[in-house]
Protein backbone atom coordinates (compact mmCIF):
# COMPACT_ATOMS: atom_id res chain seq x y z
CA UNK A 1 0.00 0.00 0.00
CA UNK A 2 1.28 3.45 -0.90
CA UNK A 3 1.41 5.84 2.07
CA UNK A 4 1.65 9.56 1.42
CA UNK A 5 4.75 11.42 2.64
CA UNK A 6 2.93 13.19 5.49
CA UNK A 7 1.78 9.90 7.00
CA UNK A 8 5.27 8.46 6.54
CA UNK A 9 6.65 11.40 8.51
CA UNK A 10 4.12 10.84 11.30
CA UNK A 11 4.95 7.13 11.49
CA UNK A 12 8.69 7.84 11.64
CA UNK A 13 8.45 9.93 14.80
CA UNK A 14 9.10 7.25 17.47
CA UNK A 15 12.18 5.97 15.65
CA UNK A 16 13.62 9.44 15.07
CA UNK A 17 12.90 10.53 18.64
CA UNK A 18 14.71 7.51 20.04
CA UNK A 19 17.66 8.02 17.67
CA UNK A 20 17.98 11.64 18.74
CA UNK A 21 17.83 10.83 22.45
CA UNK A 22 20.36 8.00 22.14
CA UNK A 23 22.92 10.34 20.56
CA UNK A 24 22.15 13.47 22.60
CA UNK A 25 25.26 15.25 23.92
CA UNK A 26 24.50 17.78 26.65
CA UNK A 27 28.12 18.78 27.28
CA UNK A 28 27.79 22.05 25.29
CA UNK A 29 25.40 23.25 28.02
CA UNK A 30 28.11 23.17 30.71
CA UNK A 31 29.16 26.73 29.94
CA UNK A 32 25.58 28.03 30.20
CA UNK A 33 24.92 26.23 33.48
CA UNK A 34 28.14 27.63 34.95
CA UNK A 35 27.10 31.19 34.04
CA UNK A 36 23.64 30.61 35.56
CA UNK A 37 25.11 29.15 38.75
CA UNK A 38 27.53 32.08 39.07
CA UNK A 39 24.71 34.62 38.70
CA UNK A 40 26.04 35.99 35.41
CA UNK A 41 22.73 35.37 33.60
CA UNK A 42 19.97 37.74 34.77
CA UNK A 43 17.24 36.26 32.57
CA UNK A 44 16.51 33.70 29.88
CA UNK A 45 14.53 34.85 26.84
CA UNK A 46 13.19 31.96 24.75
CA UNK A 47 11.98 32.79 21.27
CA UNK A 48 10.96 31.25 17.96
CA UNK A 49 7.99 31.06 15.62
CA UNK A 50 5.13 28.62 15.05
CA UNK A 51 5.69 24.97 15.96
CA UNK A 52 9.27 25.70 17.05
CA UNK A 53 8.03 28.21 19.63
CA UNK A 54 5.19 25.96 20.82
CA UNK A 55 7.63 23.05 21.05
CA UNK A 56 9.74 24.82 23.66
CA UNK A 57 6.78 25.88 25.87
CA UNK A 58 7.13 22.91 28.28
CA UNK A 59 10.86 23.65 28.62
CA UNK A 60 10.04 27.25 29.57
CA UNK A 61 7.71 25.93 32.27
CA UNK A 62 10.49 23.71 33.65
CA UNK A 63 12.85 26.69 33.85
CA UNK A 64 10.34 28.91 35.63
CA UNK A 65 9.25 26.12 37.98
CA UNK A 66 12.91 25.82 39.00
CA UNK A 67 12.94 29.52 39.92
CA UNK A 68 14.80 30.94 36.92
CA UNK A 69 13.60 34.24 35.44
CA UNK A 70 12.57 33.10 31.97
CA UNK A 71 10.40 34.61 29.23
CA UNK A 72 8.72 32.77 26.33
CA UNK A 73 8.07 35.21 23.48
CA UNK A 74 7.13 35.15 19.81
CA UNK A 75 10.22 36.26 17.85
CA UNK A 76 8.30 38.86 15.83
CA UNK A 77 7.02 40.51 19.00
CA UNK A 78 10.49 40.37 20.52
CA UNK A 79 12.06 42.08 17.50
CA UNK A 80 9.51 44.82 17.03
CA UNK A 81 8.06 45.51 20.48
CA UNK A 82 9.88 43.76 23.32
CA UNK A 83 13.57 43.89 22.46
CA UNK A 84 14.39 45.78 25.66
CA UNK A 85 13.84 42.52 27.52
CA UNK A 86 17.28 41.57 26.22
CA UNK A 87 20.04 42.82 28.50
CA UNK A 88 23.84 42.38 28.39
CA UNK A 89 23.38 39.47 30.83
CA UNK A 90 20.58 37.70 28.95
CA UNK A 91 20.70 34.13 27.68
CA UNK A 92 18.84 34.35 24.37
CA UNK A 93 17.47 30.86 23.60
CA UNK A 94 16.45 30.69 19.94
CA UNK A 95 14.54 27.78 18.41
CA UNK A 96 14.08 27.14 14.69
CA UNK A 97 14.04 23.75 13.00
CA UNK A 98 15.35 25.28 9.76
CA UNK A 99 17.69 27.75 11.46
CA UNK A 100 16.59 30.33 8.91
CA UNK A 101 13.36 31.82 10.30
CA UNK A 102 13.18 35.39 9.01
CA UNK A 103 12.20 36.85 12.39
CA UNK A 104 15.23 35.32 14.12
CA UNK A 105 17.56 36.59 11.42
CA UNK A 106 16.76 40.17 12.50
CA UNK A 107 18.94 39.66 15.54
CA UNK A 108 21.98 39.08 13.36
CA UNK A 109 21.40 41.88 10.86
CA UNK A 110 20.22 44.86 12.94
CA UNK A 111 22.83 46.63 15.04
CA UNK A 112 20.05 48.57 16.82
CA UNK A 113 18.84 45.44 18.65
CA UNK A 114 20.33 44.72 22.10
CA UNK A 115 23.11 42.15 22.28
CA UNK A 116 22.68 39.30 24.79
CA UNK A 117 25.47 37.70 26.77
CA UNK A 118 25.01 34.38 25.03
CA UNK A 119 22.90 32.90 22.23
CA UNK A 120 21.80 29.29 22.65
CA UNK A 121 20.20 27.69 19.59
CA UNK A 122 18.17 24.54 19.05
CA UNK A 123 17.91 23.73 15.36
CA UNK A 124 17.90 20.87 12.90
CA UNK A 125 20.44 22.37 10.50
CA UNK A 126 23.94 22.88 11.88
CA UNK A 127 24.95 24.67 8.66
CA UNK A 128 22.18 27.27 9.05
CA UNK A 129 22.61 30.97 9.79
CA UNK A 130 21.25 30.47 13.31
CA UNK A 131 23.66 27.65 14.13
CA UNK A 132 26.61 29.69 12.84
CA UNK A 133 25.62 32.81 14.78
CA UNK A 134 24.87 31.05 18.10
CA UNK A 135 27.51 30.59 20.76
CA UNK A 136 26.13 27.16 21.71
CA UNK A 137 23.91 24.88 19.61
CA UNK A 138 22.04 21.62 20.15
CA UNK A 139 20.78 19.69 17.15
CA UNK A 140 17.35 18.04 17.13
CA UNK A 141 19.03 15.56 14.78
CA UNK A 142 16.28 14.26 12.52
CA UNK A 143 15.65 14.20 8.75
CA UNK A 144 13.75 17.27 7.59
CA UNK A 145 10.09 16.61 6.80
CA UNK A 146 8.73 16.40 3.32
CA UNK A 147 5.52 18.15 4.41
CA UNK A 148 4.23 19.57 7.72
CA UNK A 149 6.39 19.72 10.86
CA UNK A 150 6.12 16.36 12.64
CA UNK A 151 9.35 14.75 13.85
CA UNK A 152 11.19 18.10 14.02
CA UNK A 153 8.46 19.35 16.37
CA UNK A 154 8.56 16.17 18.45
CA UNK A 155 12.34 16.28 18.78
CA UNK A 156 12.24 19.98 19.64
CA UNK A 157 9.86 19.15 22.48
CA UNK A 158 12.13 16.40 23.75
CA UNK A 159 15.55 18.04 23.40
CA UNK A 160 14.43 21.40 24.81
CA UNK A 161 12.91 19.77 27.90
CA UNK A 162 16.04 17.73 28.58
CA UNK A 163 18.12 20.90 28.10
CA UNK A 164 15.94 22.70 30.67
CA UNK A 165 16.52 19.89 33.17
CA UNK A 166 20.27 20.08 32.57
CA UNK A 167 20.39 23.85 33.03
CA UNK A 168 18.45 23.63 36.30
CA UNK A 169 20.52 20.77 37.72
CA UNK A 170 17.69 18.23 37.63
CA UNK A 171 17.68 14.54 36.73
CA UNK A 172 18.15 14.41 32.96
CA UNK A 173 18.34 10.61 32.92
CA UNK A 174 14.84 10.34 34.40
CA UNK A 175 13.60 12.83 31.81
CA UNK A 176 15.13 10.84 28.97
CA UNK A 177 13.59 7.65 30.35
CA UNK A 178 10.14 9.33 30.36
CA UNK A 179 10.67 10.34 26.74
CA UNK A 180 11.76 6.86 25.67
CA UNK A 181 8.72 5.32 27.38
CA UNK A 182 6.51 7.80 25.51
CA UNK A 183 8.32 6.90 22.28
CA UNK A 184 7.49 3.23 22.82
CA UNK A 185 3.86 4.15 23.45
CA UNK A 186 3.79 6.25 20.26
CA UNK A 187 5.18 3.34 18.30
CA UNK A 188 2.49 0.96 19.59
CA UNK A 189 -0.25 3.55 19.00
CA UNK A 190 0.84 4.28 15.44
CA UNK A 191 0.88 0.61 14.46
CA UNK A 192 -2.92 1.02 14.40
CA UNK A 193 -2.90 4.47 12.84
CA UNK A 194 -5.59 3.61 10.28
CA UNK A 195 -7.97 2.48 13.02
CA UNK A 196 -7.36 5.72 14.91
CA UNK A 197 -8.06 7.76 11.76
CA UNK A 198 -11.33 5.87 11.22
CA UNK A 199 -12.33 6.42 14.86
CA UNK A 200 -11.61 10.15 14.52
CA UNK A 201 -13.77 10.25 11.39
CA UNK A 202 -16.63 8.60 13.26
CA UNK A 203 -16.31 10.61 16.48
CA UNK A 204 -15.41 14.07 15.18
CA UNK A 205 -16.00 13.88 11.45
CA UNK A 206 -15.84 17.25 9.72
CA UNK A 207 -17.06 19.62 12.46
CA UNK A 208 -18.56 22.97 11.64
CA UNK A 209 -16.39 24.62 14.30
CA UNK A 210 -13.42 23.11 16.15
CA UNK A 211 -11.75 24.32 19.36
CA UNK A 212 -8.76 22.67 21.06
CA UNK A 213 -8.18 23.25 24.78
CA UNK A 214 -5.37 22.47 27.19
CA UNK A 215 -3.38 23.79 30.14
CA UNK A 216 0.20 23.78 31.33
CA UNK A 217 2.59 21.67 29.21
CA UNK A 218 -0.42 20.54 27.14
CA UNK A 219 -0.59 24.00 25.57
CA UNK A 220 2.25 22.88 23.29
CA UNK A 221 -0.02 20.29 21.66
CA UNK A 222 -3.04 22.59 21.90
CA UNK A 223 -1.47 25.28 19.73
CA UNK A 224 0.55 23.00 17.48
CA UNK A 225 -2.51 20.80 16.95
CA UNK A 226 -4.53 23.74 15.69
CA UNK A 227 -1.58 24.88 13.58
CA UNK A 228 -1.09 21.56 11.75
CA UNK A 229 -4.82 20.95 11.25
CA UNK A 230 -4.88 24.30 9.45
CA UNK A 231 -1.69 23.61 7.53
CA UNK A 232 -2.18 19.95 6.62
CA UNK A 233 -5.99 19.69 6.36
CA UNK A 234 -6.71 23.34 5.43
CA UNK A 235 -9.32 23.32 8.21
CA UNK A 236 -9.46 26.18 10.72
CA UNK A 237 -9.20 25.27 14.41
CA UNK A 238 -8.98 27.58 17.42
CA UNK A 239 -6.51 26.84 20.24
CA UNK A 240 -7.10 28.25 23.73
CA UNK A 241 -6.09 27.74 27.32
CA UNK A 242 -8.90 25.72 28.93
CA UNK A 243 -9.28 28.27 31.73
CA UNK A 244 -9.43 31.10 29.20
CA UNK A 245 -12.30 29.33 27.44
CA UNK A 246 -14.53 29.97 30.46
CA UNK A 247 -13.98 33.73 30.19
CA UNK A 248 -16.16 34.59 27.21
CA UNK A 249 -15.69 31.81 24.63
CA UNK A 250 -17.93 29.52 26.70
CA UNK A 251 -20.79 31.55 25.20
CA UNK A 252 -19.91 29.98 21.82
CA UNK A 253 -21.06 26.55 22.99
CA UNK A 254 -23.94 25.23 20.89
CA UNK A 255 -24.62 22.03 18.92
CA UNK A 256 -22.35 22.98 16.02
CA UNK A 257 -19.28 23.47 18.24
CA UNK A 258 -16.83 20.58 18.71
CA UNK A 259 -14.28 20.91 21.51
CA UNK A 260 -11.27 18.65 22.03
CA UNK A 261 -9.92 18.86 25.57
CA UNK A 262 -6.55 17.43 26.53
CA UNK A 263 -6.79 15.74 29.93
CA UNK A 264 -3.26 16.94 30.65
CA UNK A 265 -1.19 16.71 33.80
CA UNK A 266 -2.77 15.62 37.08
CA UNK A 267 -2.53 19.16 38.51
CA UNK A 268 -5.42 20.44 36.39
CA UNK A 269 -7.00 17.24 35.05
CA UNK A 270 -10.12 17.55 37.30
CA UNK A 271 -10.65 21.14 36.10
CA UNK A 272 -10.40 20.05 32.47
CA UNK A 273 -12.86 17.22 33.02
CA UNK A 274 -15.33 19.55 34.72
CA UNK A 275 -15.11 21.92 31.74
CA UNK A 276 -15.75 19.06 29.30
CA UNK A 277 -18.81 18.05 31.29
CA UNK A 278 -20.09 21.65 31.29
CA UNK A 279 -19.68 21.89 27.50
CA UNK A 280 -21.74 18.72 27.06
CA UNK A 281 -24.37 20.04 29.47
CA UNK A 282 -24.61 23.28 27.44
CA UNK A 283 -25.25 21.34 24.23
CA UNK A 284 -21.81 21.29 22.63
CA UNK A 285 -19.71 18.30 21.61
CA UNK A 286 -16.78 17.66 23.96
CA UNK A 287 -14.08 15.05 23.28
CA UNK A 288 -11.76 13.91 26.07
CA UNK A 289 -8.24 13.44 24.65
CA UNK A 290 -6.50 11.09 27.03
CA UNK A 291 -4.89 7.65 27.31
CA UNK A 292 -7.79 6.69 29.57
CA UNK A 293 -11.50 7.04 28.99
CA UNK A 294 -13.95 8.37 31.56
CA UNK A 295 -17.48 7.12 31.82
CA UNK A 296 -19.43 10.20 30.80
CA UNK A 297 -17.25 11.75 28.06
CA UNK A 298 -16.67 10.83 24.40
CA UNK A 299 -13.08 9.62 24.28
CA UNK A 300 -10.27 10.27 21.78
CA UNK A 301 -7.47 7.85 22.60
CA UNK A 302 -3.87 9.09 22.72
CA UNK A 303 -0.59 7.33 23.58
CA UNK A 304 0.57 7.15 27.21
CA UNK A 305 3.07 9.74 28.37
CA UNK A 306 4.21 11.00 31.77
CA UNK A 307 6.57 13.75 32.85
CA UNK A 308 8.56 14.99 29.88
CA UNK A 309 6.80 12.38 27.73
CA UNK A 310 3.31 13.84 28.19
CA UNK A 311 3.48 16.69 25.63
CA UNK A 312 5.24 14.32 23.21
CA UNK A 313 2.34 11.86 23.38
CA UNK A 314 -0.36 14.54 23.12
CA UNK A 315 0.34 15.80 19.60
CA UNK A 316 -0.26 12.54 17.70
CA UNK A 317 -4.11 12.49 17.82
CA UNK A 318 -4.14 15.93 16.21
CA UNK A 319 -1.75 14.80 13.49
CA UNK A 320 -4.06 11.88 12.74
CA UNK A 321 -7.11 14.14 12.90
CA UNK A 322 -5.54 16.27 10.16
CA UNK A 323 -5.31 13.07 8.10
CA UNK A 324 -8.94 12.23 8.88
Question: What do you see in this structure?
Answer:
It is a single chain. This protein has 324 residues and is of the alpha/beta class. It has helices at 5-11, 13-22, 30-37, 50-55, 57-65, 75-80, 102-109, 129-133, 151-167, 172-190, 193-203, 219-233, 242-245, 269-281, 309-314, 316-323, and strands at residues 43-48, 70-74, 90-96, 118-123, 136-139, 209-214, 238-241, 257-262, 285-290, 299-301. The strands form two sheets. Strands 2-1-3-4-5 form a five-stranded parallel beta sheet. The chain has a five-stranded parallel beta sheet with strand order 7-6-8-9-10, with helices on both faces. The longest helix has 19 residues, at 172-190. The chain is globular, with a radius of gyration of 20 Å. The chain starts with a helix and ends with a helix.
Helix-strand blueprint:
Layout: H1 5-11, H2 13-22, H3 30-37, E1 43-48, H4 50-55, H5 57-65, E2 70-74, H6 75-80, E3 90-96, H7 102-109, E4 118-123, H8 129-133, E5 136-139, H9 151-167, H10 172-190, H11 193-203, E6 209-214, H12 219-233, E7 238-241, H13 242-245, E8 257-262, H14 269-281, E9 285-290, E10 299-301, H15 309-314, H16 316-323
Parallel strand pairs: 1-2, 1-3, 3-4, 4-5, 6-7, 6-8, 8-9, 9-10
Name a few traits of the molecule.
five-stranded parallel β-sheet; 16 helices; alpha/beta; 324 residues
Short account of what is shown:
The protein is of the alpha/beta class.
Amino acid sequence: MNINPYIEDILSQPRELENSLRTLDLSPLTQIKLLIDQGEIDRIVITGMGASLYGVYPAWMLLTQAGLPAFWIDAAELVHYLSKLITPNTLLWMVSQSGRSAELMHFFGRSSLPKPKLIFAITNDLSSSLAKAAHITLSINTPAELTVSTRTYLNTLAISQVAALELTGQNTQKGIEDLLIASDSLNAYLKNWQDHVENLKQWIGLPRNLVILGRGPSLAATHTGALIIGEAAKFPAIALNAAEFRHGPLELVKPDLSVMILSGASTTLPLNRHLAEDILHLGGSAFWVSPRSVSNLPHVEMPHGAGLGLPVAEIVPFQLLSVA
